[in-house]
Amino acid sequence: MENKQGEQQRHYDVIVVGAGMVGAAFACLLARANTNLSIALLEAQTAFAFDHQQFDPRVAALTEKSRRLLQCCGVWESIAAQRVSPYTAMQVWDAEGTGEIHFDCQDVHQPNLGHIVENSLVVECLVAEVDQLDNIDFICPITVAHYSKSESQVTLELNSGETLVAPLLVAADGGNSTIRQQFNFATREWDYGHSAIVTTVQTEAVHQQTAWQRFMPTGPLALLPLQKDGDHHYCSLVWSQESDEAKRLMALDNRAFCAELSRASERCVGKVMSVDKRFAIPLRQRHATDYVIERVALLGDAAHTIHPLAGQGVNLGFADVSALVETLCAEAKRGNDLGSLMTLNKYQRLRKPENLAVMAAMEGFKRLFAADNVAVRLLRNMGLGKVNQIKPLKNEIIKRVMGF
Ligand SMILES: Cc1cc2nc3c(=O)[nH]c(=O)nc-3n(C[C@H](O)[C@H](O)[C@H](O)COP(=O)(O)OP(=O)(O)OC[C@H]3O[C@@H](n4cnc5c(N)ncnc54)[C@H](O)[C@@H]3O)c2cc1C
Description:
By secondary structure, this protein is of the alpha/beta class. It has a single domain (9-401), classed as 3-Layer(bba) Sandwich (FAD/NAD(P)-binding domain). The chain contains eleven helices and 22 strands. It has helices at 21-33, 64-72, 76-82, 119-132, 178-182, 243-251, 254-264, 313-333, 341-370, 374-389, 391-401, and strands at 9-11, 14-17, 39-42, 59-62, 85-87, 89-94, 100-104, 114-118, 136-139, 144-149, 154-158, 163-166, 168-171, 187-203, 210-216, 219-228, 231-242, 272-275, 279-288, 292-293, 296-298, 304-305. The strands form four sheets. Strands 6, 7, 14, 15, 16, 17, 18, 19 and 22 form a nine-stranded mixed beta sheet that branches. Strand 2 (14-17), helix 1 (21-33) and strand 3 (39-42) form a beta-alpha-beta unit. Helix 1 (21-33) runs parallel beside helix 4 (119-132) and helix 1 packs parallel to helix 8 (313-333). The N and C termini lie far apart (46 Å). The relative contact order is 0.17. The chain binds flavin-adenine dinucleotide. Flavin-adenine dinucleotide is lined by residues 17-23, 42-45, 60-61, 144, 172-175, 178, 196, 198, 238, 281, 300-301, 308, 311-315, 317. The site of flavin-adenine dinucleotide (FAD) has 32 residues, from helix 1, strand 4, strand 14 and helix 8.
């Protein structure tokens, strides 16, 4: 269709901006759930290439619930066929005392507690699936020059000269969401004063398919098990540190870094033998006061970013995906307006309380383990030890870890 100036206008039911794990999963799931809906998925960057030789430094610990969502998107089999690392146990301990807790999938009669996946592989598989679906137009690389909205639709003017319109715009454009800023969504946010050092390390001992996490006053250190062709000597490192300490660690040469990491991890996987290129990611807590306004919904990191200490960020994002797809499909069936505030508020009601609760719990954890007070340390040690002994409570926590 042409507008008054004779330019091309393309109409969709839903426009999604951002083909990261969350946006691509959303587009995929919605397109499969309702083949009558027409969807545009826009992405600014071209590079999704998954490197079969080297591990991606960005990984996520996926819950069983998230794994099932990827299965519903039709991509889990292809992810698993390429590279995925199930973990069967979790060992969490306090650097400042004797407190420790061990979770095992056998306690809840499950084959694993979750899977470590590489972000680039998940995105690559989702984008490959999107390409197969007739009711999605994947537009990439693309820059949106201008966003506007009226009572009945949003309009996106692309740098290519094209104009896209739809009754609903879904912002899955990440933590620094342009759309969130363009439409003046209020946020509550603060700097953790932490950066996460991420990379892949090769270890002396096998990781035993265990996710290792040591809480230090300066931040948590996680070694997540990876596997390549059956070799269990690789772990993904997520080492959250106060920013100055992170700078110091980043400046070390590889040998010195491996030695520090061996010490800090108490050689739980033996000595750290080698390390890939390191990246430091500044950490910020952010939560949009509202996830929706008339015609626009925020999804995943665009709505909330959280400290990676419990590996929940994309799991919450996938739960958003599920809730928004469910809401839109139900409203489409009734012939209702997909971008109305009434529709979008249903999604917000499903997701905001849970996201807030998880974010508050993570903040509590972070503060608890940062506390240097002797009494808090004692309680911490006793607390971890007690939870470790109370089987029903421990099993309840395991179920939460698995996303149920
Ligand atoms: C160190 C670290 C470890 C983590 N570990 C875990 C974990 O173990 N488990 C877990 O659940 N979560 C984890 N997370 C969180 C997880 O990585 C994020 O929640 C997740 O990547 C968010 O996905 P997203 O698709 O919402 O956003 P992003 O991954 O940021 O994707 C946004 C996409 O939008 C595109 N985009 C941005 N702006 C535009 C625009 N204007 N136009 C078009 N496209 C645009 C970007 O190019 C990108 O592709 C971790 C995070 C960190 C920092």
